[in-house]
């Protein structure tokens, strides 16, 4: 046996120990499983504008137009007398600087998949430059990064983080995401905004002190059948982080998963009660409440 092993080594057989190589972590992601990484934030307008710039340059005007978000989705909001009218968002939400880091919306399932393929190509091209490989200590290797929409199981794993969703259905402890309503709302102003017949101001204030609001960007229920609804999503870089470091795992925009018509996480247009990790949101096309967050696998060849 010793002689056979020695001969195998002399004629170029396999080494006794294979070198273990740790794949690099893609930028702005966290690891959620064996060779599986997830974006910390939802895909923002800034990212989509970068995508549009390069496909217009490299693939032509026709394909560029196919990948434009449907900005008319903002007429789907159901707010009464919003401070920000639909026309403002239709005109400016995608391209204006003040919305640059807000999540991209108005996209279809097919557009999301096209974006994932383009992002994979762009990242692979950038990371496999000799200088980049040398900085990672991977000279002579090739890194293959593949972005895609997550499966339902992968999304739920990332949103739950280190929490057990049977006990923490939103991936957070209640004290981490609930705040007393009276600390965020002026009771007098809220009472004056109620339609008749309305409760007494004293009774309303008492109820408000017993009510808790979520810090997620979702629709919150208040006493006297009043609801607190955000006008549009927050910046992808602002908000609560779950135990893995993901922002807006609940609320802001619902996030597409693999399989047309399926999304998770709720949004600024969904009530808290319909935004649990286990809940599914259904869609039939682009919507103002629908965005995406990608997962990535990384191989070193």
From TrEMBL:
Taxon lineage: Bacteria, Pseudomonadati, Bacteroidota, Cytophagia, Cytophagales
Keywords from the named record: Lipoprotein, Signal
Keyword Signal found: yes
Entry-linked Gene3D superfamilies: paralog of FGE (formylglycine-generating enzyme) (3.90.1580.10)
Organism whose genome encodes this protein: Cesiribacter andamanensis AMV16
SUPFAM superfamilies assigned to the protein according to its UniProt record, in alphabetical order: C-type lectin-like
PANTHER family, A to Z: FORMYLGLYCINE-GENERATING ENZYME, SULFATASE MODIFYING FACTOR 1, 2
Residues in Sulfatase-modifying factor enzyme-like domain copies: 25-175
One Pfam family per UniProt: FGE-sulfatase
InterPro entries: CTDL_fold, Sulfatase_Mod_Factor_Kinase, SUMF_dom, SUMF_sf
Endpoints of the signal sequence: 1-18
This protein's name: Gliding motility-associated lipoprotein GldJ
GO molecular function annotations of the record: formylglycine-generating oxidase activity
């Amino acid at each position: 046996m010793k002689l056979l092993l020695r001969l195998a080594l002399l004629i170029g057989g396999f080494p006794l120990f294979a070198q273990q190589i740790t794949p690099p972590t893609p930028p702005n992601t966290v690891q959620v499983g064996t060779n599986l990484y997830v974006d910390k934030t939802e895909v923002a307008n800034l990212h989509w504008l970068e995508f549009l710039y390069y496909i217009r340059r490299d693939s032509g005007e026709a394909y560029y137009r196919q990948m434009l978000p449907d900005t008319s989705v903002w007429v789907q909001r159901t707010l009464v007398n919003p401070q920000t009218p639909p026309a403002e968002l239709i005109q400016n939400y995608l391209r204006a600087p003040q919305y640059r880091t807000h999540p991209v919306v108005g996209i279809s399932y097919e557009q999301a998949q096209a974006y994932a393929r383009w992002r994979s190509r762009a990242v692979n091209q950038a990371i496999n430059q000799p200088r980049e490989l040398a900085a990672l200590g991977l000279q002579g290797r090739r890194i293959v990064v593949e972005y895609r929409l997550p499966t339902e199981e992968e999304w739920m794993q990332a949103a739950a983080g280190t929490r057990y969703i049977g006990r923490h259905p939103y991936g957070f402890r209640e004290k981490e995401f609930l705040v007393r309503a009276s600390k965020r709302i002026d009771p007098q102003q809220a009472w004056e905004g109620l339609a008749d017949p309305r409760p007494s101001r004293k009774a309303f204030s008492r109820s408000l002190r017993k009510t808790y609001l979520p810090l997620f960007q979702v629709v919150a229920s208040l006493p006297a059948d009043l609801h607190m609804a955000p006008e549009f999503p927050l910046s992808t870089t602002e908000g609560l982080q779950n135990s893995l470091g993901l922002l807006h795992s609940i609320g802001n925009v619902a996030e597409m998963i693999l399989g047309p018509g399926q999304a998770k996480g709720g949004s600024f247009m969904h009530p808290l009660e319909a935004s649990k990790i286990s809940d599914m949101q259904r869609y039939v096309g682009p919507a103002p409440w629908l965005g995406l967050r990608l997962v990535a696998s990384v191989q070193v060849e």
